[in-house]
Specification:
- By secondary structure, the chain is of the alpha+beta class.
- The protein is built from 3 helices and 7 strands, in the order βααββββββα.
- It has a 7-stranded antiparallel sheet with strand order 1-7-6-5-4-3-2.
- Strand 4 and strand 5 form a beta hairpin.
- Helix 2 packs across helix 3.
Length: about 150
């Protein structure tokens, strides 16, 4: 296990389309499967109800830390695999999720990196890493379906 997860996918969609799918809270919610309560604002906390079957009890929460269209980077911090409603994750150090975009001949290359797992409490680190590693693989296919439709 390492401190970071990295996934890359080439999308047959223009960079602007992929950017909107990441940074427009409604579009993000469609492919990420969360009903986001409001727009993404750097420095603010975004939250919403997960809509993915089996996780409807989870409130998704992330602090938007970067929305740099010129640099093509969207980033937030969150508590990875924070799915137990009886646990207060707020005192844990969050991980950083960074999406970066680059144009390709056929569309856009999207890379997501989630880093900071070394700071996740030891008793849940391996499960959080494993679940998010699989989760990001699935989410890359979700955003592909969303932007290529």
């Amino acid at each position: 296990m390492s401190d970071r997860i990295e996934k890359t996918v080439d999308l047959n969609a223009p960079l602007e389309r992929v950017w909107r799918a990441l940074t427009d809270a409604d579009q993000f919610g469609q492919w990420f499967r969360v009903k986001v309560e409001g727009p993404f604002v750097p420095g603010e906390i975004a939250r919403g109800q997960i809509t993915h079957p089996g996780y409807e009890h989870v409130v998704w929460q992330a602090r938007i830390v970067r929305m740099d269209e010129a640099a093509r980077v969207f980033a937030y911090t969150w508590h990875p695999y924070a799915v137990d409603p009886k646990v207060d994750y707020s005192q844990e150090t969050p991980t950083l999720v960074e999406f970066s975009l680059e144009p390709t001949d056929s569309g856009t290359r999207l890379t997501v990196v989630e880093s900071g797992f070394d700071a996740v409490p030891a008793h849940r680190r391996a499960e959080a890493f494993r679940m998010n590693d699989g989760g990001w693989a699935a989410q890359m296919q979700n955003i592909r379906a969303h932007v290529e439709a």
